[in-house]
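Appendix B, Record 12. Input sequence as logged:
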Amino acid sequence: MAIITNQQGSVLMNRRELLLSGVALASAAIVGKVQAADGHEHHHQHGGAVNTDLTAATSDCIQKGQVCLSHCLTLLGQGDKEMAACAQSVNQMLAVCSALQQLASQESHYLKSQAKIAMDICKECEDECKKHADKHDACKACMDSCAACYKECKKIAA
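Logged structural output:
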């Protein structure tokens, strides 16, 4: 029996496990085709995408915020203490927007109250990043994404 290992010598999977996994996958595919052919396919009724604009805005804000925070931390490490407030506001925005994104995708009844909180934090982050936007592209991108997220939050919080 052949055993597959990685560079550190840890066992990843033996040949038997690999073959059984392949057989299980093939069986699942065959069952799916048979059910579809027999008309026993299970259909879910979905109402469509929910809060797509808010979810997209929070996703962009999170992505741009992570880049900005990393940039701020690098500059802080180099002794640029001017970036401390920016890093702190971005860090808070990341926490709130992550929660907001989850609540939006779940259609939570807490969404409206979380959107109100996110509005304040996104505005604060936007204002803080604006101080550095002319010198740092990461801050400008974060500032713009926070402004867009603020607008989407306002629609939900109203």
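The domain at 52-157 is CATH 1.20.1270.360 (Substrate Binding Domain Of Dnak; Chain:A; Domain 2).
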